[in-house]
# Entry
Amino acid sequence: MSKQLQKRDGGKTPRPEEEEKKPKTTKLNLVVSIELEKEFREAIFKKYGMKRGNITKAIEEAINEWMQKQESPPAKKQSKT
# Structure
């Protein structure tokens, strides 16, 4: 790598093997009620604290849980006798 390129990026160009380890990401634009967002953020702060990336972590967790529920067979309703 040239010295000029090192100066521009601070010498922090990721190695090809490091790039492969990072999962590719995308952005979601969501519209939810103000109250739901407020409650969700409070729950995240209680569980994970106020740290960058915790909202993303909680949303990924929620999406994964929802997807797992969709894959599992529906629970049988118990009849009232």
